[in-house]
Write a structure and sequence with these properties.
disordered C terminus, single chain, 29% strand, alpha/beta, globular, Rossmann fold, six-stranded mixed beta sheet
Amino acid sequence: MGLMLKVKDLCFSYRERPVLKDVDLEVRKGEVVGILGPNGCGKTTLLKLMNRNLRPESGQVWMEDKDLAAVSKKEIARHIAVVPQSNEIRFAFTVRDIVMMGRMPFLQQFQGESSDDARIVDEAMRKTNVSEFADRYINTMSGGERQRVIIARAIAQRPEIILLDEPTLHLDINHQFEVLDLVKRLSKEEGLTVVIVSHDLPMVVKYCDRIVLIHDHKVFADGTPDDILTKENLKTVFNIDAVLEYDATLKAKSVKIFGSYTKQS
């Protein structure tokens, strides 16, 4: 399994306020990795650094054998797609228009879309179950529908890596599972490497192969959900009394917060 992304000795500050310090992280092909931590811990900043939307104060981000600092944004977009935290689009683009934007990294200046681009867009819409909305304006759609369109746009980039920033934020519970079921399926079927930033413990337990906990500006723990979501780690990072356990009724692992259960995972 080849190495897709490597973060080495990464540091970043906002106006001299440290956000990330000496972060090391490796993500391999086909993994679904969840980056967890409380609000303000630097999760989204780390995701932006992994896509070179931000430049590190020091350290490097490597894509295979290439330092992202030496790679053009267009070239990065041919390998890494991003699903941002907000899917609000104010302009009246159709669903097909939005998904076609995923082909922009592959178009030459003044070049229009080809029949191959149209085929890739149709395929991305089919995989994300939005084909029926192709001619619908995206600003008339529900949050869950829009999120599927944004994922379709990412898939149309034909990426090897997808970075998702709080992909279920503001979505109803049924749409949360729908979106992440889709991402997990695409990862399995197409070997996509997926990095998900989230603070939703039950969702991460259900969908991620590995979990990275961010605490005190650093990687606090990195490993499987069983290894990482211990009572001690959850107390340190989230300040909650909780434990990961198997629920025989649900036939699934869940995060139990003492006194009540979280959502099924």
